[in-house]
Each structure stands twice: as C-alpha cells, then as structure tokens.
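Archive entry: two folds, one per protein. Generate the first.
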Amino acid sequence: MNKEVRVGVAVVIHRDGCILLGERIGSHGSHTWATPGGHLELNESIEECAKREVLEETGLVVESFTKLGFTNDIFEQEGKHYVTLFVLTECTQGAPKVTEPSKCLQWKWCSLDDLPQPLFLPLENFLNQYSLLNELG
C-alpha cells in the first residue's frame, strides 16, 4: 500500500431534487458512480478545488458551497488511502458535458431514492454515515 494519504474533494451538485453522478473509468473505482471531484492541490482551498474540478470534469460553473462531512476511504485492492471532503452546491443552469472522456463515461442527474449502482467507495461511505436527504431538504 502507498504510504501516503491523499485528500480528495467530492462535490455534491444539487438540482431539482437530484444529484449529479458520473460513471468513472480509467482509474480506481472504474465503473462506479461518483460525484465530480478530485485531489486537493497544495495551497488550494477546498472551495477552489471544488470549483476547478467541477469545471474541468463537467463544464459547469458552481460558486458557493456548504461543507457536508468527510470520509476515510481505504481502497485495499488498489493500495490507496484517501480522506474525502464532501461539499454541497447547487447548479441551476447548464448541462454537464463529458469533458474528460478518459475518466468519465457519462453524467446523469439521479434521484437520491434511485441511485445507480455500484457507487464509488467514498460516496458509499458518505451515504452510510450521513443523511444527504436532510441536507437537500
């Protein structure tokens, strides 16, 4: 196992009672469903990371964030360990585009009571620890 713990930022984008999920490919968690997000870079704020990753991955522009919580994610098979910081934002305009086709197969707006499976480990861990329905209320 890699001896370093990485920090990931997961961005839960809310619109009309749904959240945006993408089908991951080409990396750990391939063919699981995840929110937009990525690695927190040196000297970058969580909010800056969230804005950058959402724009890079979907072409959507998001502005304000609410901190939701964090997960401790150990990918045993891949030998990776992440702490993932979850933030919530709303996006009322624009359609998500697959801007990184080597990393994401598709984007889809998903109802919380009908999420696609399997979920990416950090999202699965988050949903087991926190109630997203309360935050989106």
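Generate the second and append.
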Amino acid sequence: MERGGDDEWSAWLDYDGDDGPSVLEGSSVDHEQPSMEEGNGDPEQPTQKDTRGRSKRNDITKMVSEGKKLEVEYNNYGQHWGKGAMTKLTRIGAWVRTNIPLRDITWPRVSQDLKNQLWEHIKAAFDVPDTDKKLTISKSRDRWKDWKNTLTEGIFTFKDVALQLLEKPPKLYEKIIDLQEWREFVASRLSPEFEVKRKKAQKSRSCNVYSHRTG
C-alpha cells in the first residue's frame, strides 16, 4: 500500500514523544503554531501541514519561578504514577529533545554531565527524593530513544515517496534540531549499515509473542 499522504505526515509531525497531554487541573497550555508551508500545487504531493505545536508548559515554568514544586507519587514498587508522574515524563521528553544530540551517539555515550543537568532540571520542578535519580535517568533514555525511533519511522515512511520532505526537520522540531544535524541523522538512517541493524531488530521483534511495557 502506498504511504506518505498528508494525514500520515501530520500524524508524524504531531507526535511529541510523550504519552499524551498531562495538563494540571485549572492550568492552561500555550502552543507554538508552526507556519504553513505551501506545497507545489500538486494534490498528489505530500506536504508539511500546519499542526498543533509543542506544549510550552507555561504552568510548570510559572510554578518553578515561584519556587514551587509538583509532587510525584510512587507505588509500592518505587514506580511513579498519576498526574505528577505524567507531567514529569513530559518535561523529561522536552529536555532530552532539546539538549541531547541525535547524531553519532548512543545512550551510554551521553555525558554524565548532561545526565546530571537533566536531574537538576527535574529536581527544580518536582518534589522527588534523591533515590529517584536512577529512575529519572532511565526514563530519559527511554524518551530519547522513543523520539529517535519516531523520527526514524518518519524517514522510512517518506524516503521512497517524498524524499524532498526529509530535506528539513519536521516542522514540529525545526526550532530545536539543527539543519546540518538533521541531514546527518537522515543520512545515517539511510546508510547500508543502519539498514542491516534495522532488519535485525525487526526480525528480533517478530519473534516476540507478547509485547510488554512496564512503568
């Protein structure tokens, strides 16, 4: 089946790497609105559509500026849950997308300094114990990998049907992904070496009888 229509492109642009909105009761969320980029007039040609922007989470920014922190609840297994946890995950996702590079790096090679900066960023906004650092770093790894996987799926969706759409970062992220870094990331994903790695991973996943995700 042919892929790459406007709806699919918009779905990729709309994805923000998080588990959905986590708006606090009574709070408001402002959205950055990307500008519309006109196509070439060909109705069959996929184009980037205007989409909702990334959440700025001004409510959290205001709370931090007032010296307040959001409480995070934990269950008997040490896993966080509830609105505080979802908001924390959203903030982690936004931080790693902005501060950790896409290209030529794996999570073990992310500097400890960056991981410490992330932890301080989270502690400034959330009432969490020091024992939460390990879990926070682990969730950061997951968020970063999920985001890269989403971008990779977009690349493979459009590489054969609308390669020109990959010349620039998706609109939703064009302000946080450097153009050169994006082009190098695309090139790395379209390399023969990554194709071998991708097929190996797909084969491994196809052998899984059940898909599990734990908190």
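Annotation attached to the second fold: The chain has a mean pLDDT of 75. The beta strands are 70-71, 73-74, 80-81, 126-127.
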